Amino acid sequence: MIKQLMAGIALAAASLCATAQTAYPGKPVTIVVPFSPGGAADIMSRLLAERLNKRLGQPVIVENKPGAGTMIASEYVAKAAPDGYTLLLAASSLGIAPSLYSKVNYDPVKDFTPVSQVASVVHVLVVHPSIPAKNVGELVTWLKANPTKANYGSVGAGTSTHLEAELFNSVAGVKMQHIPYKGSAPALTDMVGGQLQVMFDAYASSGPFIKDGKVRLLAVTTAQRSQSLPDTPTVAESGLPGYEAMPWLGLVAPAKTPAPVVNKLYAELHEVLKEPEVQDKFRSLGLDIIGSKPEEFGAFLRRDIVKWAKVVKDSGARAD
């Protein structure tokens, strides 16, 4: 009798668990964004939230938690309940921060469950028009002939634009001098003014300056050409084989989030990313859609952590 009772309880518990997972979501879902409102990542998150709201049948709320190189938002989500109701819009900095900062209160692999690498951020290599280089190969030649004349700007120490340039230094065997800024706008102002000769930057911010001829576009940083700039060569194919840098944005959940919940989120996101209006909006924001599966995103994240840890170590870059 007792065995039958215990078996019945176990069956009921399993049924309740299955019902709970099948019913997901049963309340609003929050996407925590580690940036201030108004930027490309924030706009993208709100677009996804709007579309996922319709597909999930529950409100999807965007909550901005900027600061500390995205670590405030990352730590917050790492400590959230692993139930699929609190998600993080992760950026490349999720995996880079442990190499840059002396204290990081989360592990980018152990404390999160990947959902999907949503998109790559289109980054470009630009030079001041006074530099006599029309491609990356010519730029490397000029830099080697003028080892003390090149300053490059970044949007801050330890940011992706800083590390992309340091990776360039390493692969090309050159030594450009780093000048950090607090954002693209002041760096681009000095770039146009001639105080900087080289810059790696998001196309979303440098695009207007490229179109006006105030800076010269040489290449995109990714391994393959960008969907947004199909006629622009990569750094690797235009003179520096082996170079690749891909800033990215993706969705992650707290570790131990149930697989059925993760798979539900991925499946609905996958459908959202197929929508023509969503694809057009991503292009306008300088984003190339990826939409990888959870396991693919996890494998990429582990490789990315190792890659940028080496760049940080070799360059001596620190953010604190």
TrEMBL record:
Pfam families assigned to the protein according to its UniProt record, in alphabetical order: TctC
Coiled coil: none
Keyword Magnesium: no
SUPFAM superfamilies given in the database record: Periplasmic binding protein-like II
InterPro entries assigned to the protein according to its UniProt record, in alphabetical order: BUG (IPR005064), Bug_dom1 (IPR042100)
Keywords: Signal
Residues annotated as signal peptide: 1-20
Family affiliation: Belongs to the UPF0065 (bug) family.
PANTHER family: BLR1237 PROTEIN, TRICARBOXYLATE-BINDING PROTEIN
Name of the protein in question: Tripartite tricarboxylate transporter substrate binding protein
